[in-house]
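ok so I'm stuck.
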Amino acid sequence: MTAEDPLSLDELTAALDARLADADARLAREYPGANTARQPVHTVYVPADRIRPGLAADWGREALEALDEFAPKAVDLVEITGLSESAVAEALPRVRAKLTREPIEDLRADLEDGYGNRGDEAEDADVAAAAEAFCADLAAGAATPYFGIRMKGMEAVGRHRGVRSLTLFLQTLLERHGSLPDNLVLTLPKITSVEQVEAMAWVCDRLERRFDLPQGRLRFELQIETPQSILLQDGTAAVARMIGAGQGRASALHYGTYDYSAACGITAAYQSLAHPVADHAKAVMQLAAAGTGVWLSDGGSNVLPVGGRADVHRAWRLHAGLVRRSLERGYYQGWDLHPGQLPMRFLAVYAFYREAFAPAAARLRAYFGAVAGGVMDEPATAQALASALVNGVRCGALDEAEVEERTGTDAATLLGLATRRVGQEQ
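replied:
not stuck anymore, here's the structure
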C-alpha cells in the first residue's frame, strides 16, 4: 500500500491506537487517578521517645478539657472562629464525639526535627519502644487509622541513622505484630535531590526482600521542605520528577512550612503556611500530584494554644483560619502538634464539609437525574462534589445515611464517582 492509498475506518483507528499505545500506557501508569483509601485530615507528630500506648486517647481527653476550660459555651467558638451560630451548633457535638472516639487520625513517631540526634543507643531504644507501643494499641483495638515514623532523610549526615531506624522499626513491628499493618505510613524528610527519592525506593525494595514482604508493600510520603524539592536548576518542577522517581511508592506530599520558608529567606516572624512562598510551593505540589493518586498535606501552625484564655483564643483563631484556608485551596490534610489544636482542627474541618453538604448534594441529585437541577455540571465537577461528600463521611463530619438521602444515590456510587480516573467518563 502506498502513501496515497486510502485507509478504511477500521484500518485508520487501528493505526491510531498503535500510534498512541505508548502514550496511553504512560498515562495509565503515571496518572492512575485518585487514591480510593481514606485520607486522614491531619498528621500528629510526636517525638519518638514520647510515643506510648493510649497516647491518642490521652490527647482526646486533653483536647476536651481545653474546650471545657477555654470555650465552655458555643458562643465562645463563634467569636473565635467567625463561624455562624448554626454552623458551630451543628458541628460541635460531632467534634466532641470525635475527640472521644478518634481524636487522632494519623500518628507519627518523629525521629527527625522533633527528636534530634541522641546517639545510636538512645534512638534504637526509642524506635523499638515506639513500634511496641503501636503494636499494643493494635492489640487493644485502640490504634489510630494511620501511624508510622518520620525517619531521618537521605542527606549524607543522617542517611545511615535513618535507614537503621527504619529497619529496626519494621523488624519490631513484624516480630511483635506478626505482619505489617495496612495503615503503616513512612515519611522521608529533607529531600534535596531526585536521586534521594530513587534511593529511598531502592532501600524499600531491599527491605522487602530482607523481610520477605510483597514487592511494592513499602510506600512513603515525600516531605517537601527544601527549594530543591520544588525547582531544579534547569527550571523544571523537581517534585513532579520525585513522584516518578518513587516508582509507584510515593503516597503523599507533605509541605514543611518552616524549613521551606527559612530556606527561601523568610524571617521567622513571617513564616507561615499562608505566606506567598508557601502558596507557590503548594501550587506546584498540587499540579505535580494531580491525577497521580498521591495525596497532599499542608503544614501546620507552631503557635500552640497554651497560656491564659486570651493566648489560647488567639492561637485557636489562627489555627482555625489556617485549616479553613487550606481546605478551600484543596489541601484536605495538615499537621497538628499539640492536643489543644485538635478542637479547632475538627471544628474547622466539620464546618467546611457541612457547609458544602447541602449544595453539593442538590447538584449531585440533579447530576444523577433524580431531579431537574439549575446547574448543568461537567463530570469533573460532579467528581469534585462527590469527593467532598465522601471525605466528609470518612472523617465524621457527615453521616452516610443523610448523604444517601439527600443525593438520591448510594455511598458506593458516590465513591466510584469521587475516585474515577480522568477520562474514564468518556
